[in-house]
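Summary for the lay section of the report: proteins are chains of building blocks that fold into shapes. Here we show the chain for IS30 family transposase and then a coded description of the shape we predicted for it.
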Amino acid sequence: ENIGDFEIDTVIQTRAKNECLLTLTGRKSRYQMIRLIPDKSASSVNQALKSILKVYQINSITADNGAEFSRLSEVFDPDYIYYAHPYSSWERGTNKNHNRLIRRWLPKGSKNATQQQVAFIENGINNYPKKLLNYKSPKEFLQTG
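The coded shape description reads as follows.
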């Protein structure tokens, strides 16, 4: 694991609306990126990932086998895309734990989040000290190592 290795996932908000959250979690830094996307389609995921790649350096991505990640190779080098084995959620445990943190703010069935709420949640997670990082926050860890 290196800084720049990320796990990617989607978090569905409500069944009534298509909007969902795209989450990327740093495997080593635990840095979290959350983007509100219009639906769970591969094109929506790729569009959000393109905007993230303009700002952040990502070395590798680990995804599940969902249809929304089937076209990642259109925006990211396929040599550095890894897919978890089916029914093996522990292979992306960091991401699953962080998605559980998001659910503290946005429980299942809650009304759709705004961009402002998503930014607030992302900021809260990235500024929360973690024992694993010697009680540094993910943001501090990225700045100081």
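Put simply, here is one thing we learned. The first strand starts at residue 5 and ends at 12.
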